[in-house]
């Protein structure tokens, strides 16, 4: 039987290093690929590539560097900036997984004769569906739910049945390389945001323009420092004259640079409208559970698909649902589809 080649997406971190190591131990021919996704000049890429070089030397594997900075800028970065300026909350990792990691990187793997593309994501697949990882605290299925069903037969996620502690133990077998890769801290939430997202937006627009805080009736009740500093559910950083109870952002209005706030109950959402559907099943009307943001428990709902639009009727109200985030549909641990949130109805 011929040995199958697996391309491993290597970031220089422990998860993808252990992924490469595990697959090699299983008998696959392993090659690595590092994606240059942005033009950070603070030594970020050099440091990551230094770690990858050590691991590649230890495993005696070949690795490639693929510059996708232009694609990333168009598909992920511009979308990220535009979304905040339009008053929505983007999810750049979801876009990156769809277009870059399991789009362009998968094409690269195939063009280099690999039968599979592996990453250190904590998620399971059977080639048709994604499933939540066994370690629920690390599960990344939410971020992968926009990936095309056509890509699934080529994916491998060897970490999916392990806990992070197990991975650290496996990593210790990488000897020389191990010490260095554990020096690399866990990936930041968003790889191109060094501290806070507003620093990125400020490079493209003046977002520090004070504006009015409105109540649900449209009355002016306070002041804020610029709408792009806020996301739905935020309760600090603006004034509400004479408020006794906490107030939360319920709406961002870029057109007139106002934000609407209300008491906690005003955050309750019963219906969610979505678009940009990506489904792994064919049904158009079904009941399931849905996650309306990462790190939340799934809620039961009825889903109705009409063309590329989706109406989600929640069985229980959910607090603070932000347009721009992803709604991910689950049948227990199985991901059955997803769509981007366009608007909400309370
Ligand atoms: N720049 C990159 N080039 C190639 N593959 C990448 C890159 N960044 C991430 N990946 C792949 O996607 C997986 C998940 O990325 P994520 O940013 O969530 O990293 P992580 O869980 O901290 O993993 P790691 O410890 O490997 O950095 C990584 O394990 C790796 O396989």
The CATH superfamily title of the largest domain: HUPs
Question: Which cofactors or ions or other ligands sit in this model?
Answer: adenosine-5'-triphosphate
What's the arrangement of strands in the largest beta sheet? 12-15-14-13-16-17
**N- and C-termini, Cα separation:** 59 Å
Number of helices: 8
Q: Any guess at the CATH architecture of the largest domain?
A: 3-Layer(aba) Sandwich
CATH class of the largest domain: Alpha Beta
Q: Which structural category do the helix and sheet elements fall into?
A: alpha/beta
* Beta-strand content: 25-35%
The Rg value, from CA coordinates, equals 22 Å
Helix and strand succession? EHEHEHHEEEHEHHHEEEEEEEEEE
Helix content: 25-40%
Shape: globular
Number of domains: 3
User: Biggest sheet, open or closed, and with what strands and sense?
Assistant: 6 strands, antiparallel, barrel
Looking at the structure, the CATH topology of the largest domain is Rossmann fold
- Number of DSSP strand runs: 17
Would you mind describing this structure in some detail?
The structure is a single chain. The protein is of the alpha/beta class and 346 residues long. It folds into three domains: 5-183, HUPs (Rossmann fold), CATH 3.40.50.620; 206-262, Roll (SH3 type barrels), CATH 2.30.30; 267-345, Elongation Factor Tu (Ef-tu), domain 3, CATH 2.40.30. It contains eight helices and 17 strands. α3 (69-85) packs antiparallel against α4 (92-111). The model has no long low-confidence stretch (mean pLDDT 94). The protein binds adenosine-5'-triphosphate. The site of adenosine-5'-triphosphate has 18 residues, from α1 and β2.
